[in-house]
Amino acid sequence: MDAAGAAQVTAKRLCALLLMITAFCWLRSYAQTDLTLTAKQLFEQERWQQLIALLEKAPRTSADLNYYYGIALAHEEHWQEADKALLAGQQFAPRDKRFPSELAGVAFKQKKFGKAKQDLRRALQLDPADAYANEFLATVYFLEGNLEAALKYWNRTEKPQIVEVRSVSRLRVRPALLDHAFALAPASTLTLDELLTSQSRLHGLEIFPSYKFELGARPDGNFDVIFRAQERDGFGSNKIEALLRMFGGIFFQEVTPEYYNLHGSGTNIISLFRWDPDKRRALVSLSGPLKGNPNWRYHLGTDLRNENWTVQTSFTGPSTVLGGLNLRREGVNAEIMRLVGARLSWSTGLELSHRDFRNVFAGVALTPELLAEGYQIKQNAQLTYELWRSPERRLTLASGATSQAGRIWSQPGQSFEKLQGTLAAHWLPQAQGDDYEMQWRVRAGKTFGQVPFDELFMLGVERDNDLWMRAHVGTRDGQKGSAPLGENYFLSNWETDKNTYSGGYLTMKLGPFLDIGKITGSTSTPVTQIPNPQNLGSQKWLFDSGAQAKLKVLGVGVILLYGKDLRTGNNTFYATVGR
């Protein structure tokens, strides 16, 4: 056979082979299409066992076949096989929202709520408006007890519809005041913003140490909102609680009479009387909703102090005395606070005070400007704003800023401005409850002009101070002045708490903490450089670490802590009540 004949034979054979391959592919496609149609019919007829028998040994080479097979297995409660089939189908169609939604259903049936939420979030990434996925995810969060997250996703489908709002606790607060505190209303859709606004108003009343909203399901698919709360009323719910509140600080030579919710009006009277010869103090404050409106709150107060200070470089061991004095200060103040929705609040107020210093030992630190005496007027302003909230992760990030502008009629007169900023994070890492809780707060302050001695910032644990470095005690031998003082500061407080006991009238949390801070004065000369250490601040960065126990006995808080100064090695044991 010549070359031309051989080429013709080869061409015929290739054509025949191509025809055979085409016919095979067509027949296979036809068979696969027939299989898909049969499987779809069984799926629509909900004949799950026959569908499983049809597909368990057949080649499932499409997303639909794996979907039908996975759903059939799920209905027969073959959860692991169903999960594998749906995952295989998802490989064919990674952007098909049916697969993550059904995978979530399989995980939900096995009570794997974490995986169910993960799959539903993926489904919502593919289609954020999918009503089924939004309602399903809301239901999972609701069953976990995370009402905020549930509302976030329910609200996308204009749910839940509430019929009535009711309280199951026997409360003495006036019903009209409580009703105004609730931003939610019956016969409407409960929104996340309404829930958060209601919580903000209730917190502002300062008479509910703990409370929560629950949803009670009704047969028609709607809900009732149920309010549960513990209420502070009068001196206490019983004599033991009243005595503990009043005399909880008796070992610190102080009593704290408190009367809450006067005549059910949300008006509170808080007082403190301390007869410690080195830290005498009398404080009385009156606060309540302005004209019965929980969005507005007024505060009136007076604060009288007579304190002995020994300013020194350490609360323990060898210490250099930098100065000493007796401070007498009398002040009255008035403040108005406004709650604006769930995220924003602001306040403004005035304070009129008078100070004088006796038994002054100026030493090397107390300058004439610090010892300015006379009357002072100070304007206060504060703004707090919630920057970010993630209900799913139970994480919030909030910010705050305060301004204090003062004028002293001394000889010569002095003016000053104190600015402070706060950034705070709060995280509950578990899906429900508060078994673990983490808090981190960063604060910074700066002054302008010349502040008097009692307006200086202090970093240390002391009952009258809120800038805690928990391995630096603010008193030595009963007198204040052993913690770093200054005009400008930075402070970071981090802590984690674990519930260790809860029962009856006692709860306890235990966890570690880490404090980082620095405080400076008006010059850069360190206090360790003698002679002329004008600066009362730390100059160097301070690092404190340790552990603390938070106890609550009949609603009264007690903190026991052990701290270690990582720079000097000093150890601290400290206790306080009512913080």
What does this molecule look like?
This protein has 579 residues and is an alpha+beta fold. It has eleven helices and 24 strands. Helix 2 crosses helix 3 and helix 3 packs antiparallel against helix 4. The termini are far apart.
Strand content: 35-45%
- Mean of all residue-level pLDDT scores: 89
Number of helices: 11
How many beta strands in the DSSP annotation? 24
Low-confidence stretches: 22-31, 523-534
Largest sheet: number of strands, sense, barrel closure: 16 strands, antiparallel
Our Rg estimate from Cα atoms comes to: 34 Å
Structural class: alpha+beta
Give the distance, in angstroms, between the N- and C-terminal Cα atoms.
Answer: 108 Å
Give the overall shape.
Answer: elongated
Helix content, binned percent: 25-40%
